[in-house]
Predict the 3D structure of the following.
Amino acid sequence: MLAKGGLSMGLCEGRVAIVTGGGRGLGRAYCLMLAAHGAKVLVNDMGAEADGNGADTLPAHQVVDEIRRAGGEAEANFGDVSDWADAQAMIEQAHKAFGGLDVLVNNAGILRDRMLVNMTEDEWDSVMRVHLKGAFAPIHHAANYWRMRHKAGDRVDARIINTTSHSALFANVGQANYASAKAGVATLTQLAARELSRYGVTANAIAPRANTRMNEHLRDESPELLRLRDPDWVASLVTWLASAGSAGVSGRIFEAWGNGYSVIESWQHGPQTASTKDPSSLGPKIFEIVEAARSNAGIDRDTWLEP
């Protein structure tokens, strides 16, 4: 098979992938590119609205149909990623349908933006549930699947690809729930990379900049930014991370869009001062190390990727 532009296919030939939230936007782009590169894809999508309400089986079915028309293999799944039993059933369905599981792409998400002082308990809980528990539950069941295969003597070469956000990495105002959940996903990714390496599993995360229905209300409609935020730029990195060729990369967080890919550098030990049990003497010391430290990066200041 050939991709658009005549690129050769087969980067993920024979690999089995689950993509959550695979019916629209970035998830759809991931499913289509993974399938074009030879992966068998389980397309998970409840078909909810961007705020998490409602359900519709059509988006997942449409992606499955598109993959099959192109000669690929795909199945639909409509489970709730944050539901423990649904997450387990998703792993079992991939194994039953395709004979295994090699790649888990956690992409499903919702938005319920609000300033801290106005955010309701339900707006906090629902976003944390879908994004953070909705990443953990599939990871938990997939990790146990791979652990059992490893213990049985099978060779495991598996991938977890999570979705974090610039909102989490750079603290975007008005998204306390979303940013906190996505920051948790970033740390969960690093932890999974350390814990699961013994079983042949890598874990990475991406912070994508792409045009999706979740950011329509924020979107700059200039033609150049629309081009740079085409989901296929991000899908390209996800597809490579899903491949056997990415085995040496784990525990990393990537920014991704049409203007480039970058590795996010995580929390680092910074300037240090001697500890004391006398708080009255701390002021000058703390001011000294704070002034010596780099400022926190911010969405409005960290602009290396802007055109």
Q: What stands out?
A: The longest strand covers residues 201-208. The chain has one domain: 9-264.
